[in-house]
Fold UPF0178 protein SAMN05880501_11136.
Amino acid sequence: MIFLQEAKAILQLLIDADACPVIDLALFVSSNYEIKPILFCDTTHRIERENAITIVVPKGPDSVDFKLVNAVTKYDIVITQDYGLAAMCLAKGAFVIDQNGREMTAENIDQLLAFRFESAKFRRAGGRTKGPKKRTEKNNISFEMNFRQICERAILAKKRGDFSD
């Protein structure tokens, strides 16, 4: 059930919700701003929360990513750990942050994509890479602090009609 009025929301928060550990924290923070939260997931990870819209797509390679990128608009905020999706959202003028609070920007996305490519190439050649470290409270604190800053910057940018800090 959605309690947030469409007319009040000035921005959207689009969350790549499959395997996202900060959904509840992001919804809590975004409730302090005029931001409409939308969760994107596939049929195998149906995720619903009160006060958020859930968009469920059929299971398939990148089906969630394509649905999300088609919904994002300039100044929106996206939470994802997928560098490819982040690059597409940045190209549309969105702000992008991962679950650990790292902002993805035009300045760092090429390096992140190159690292992903090299890691995939290494694994295809038989190499093994370590998985992600266990999530800590420090990750949540970093995410919340940086997410709040991005919310404020996005709202200000939208009101000014630009994309600067």
Notes: The beta strands are 11-16, 35-42, 53-57, 77-79, 95-97, 103-104. Residues 137-160 form the longest helix (24 residues). Residues 57 and 67 are 8 Å apart (CA to CA). The radius of gyration is 16 Å.
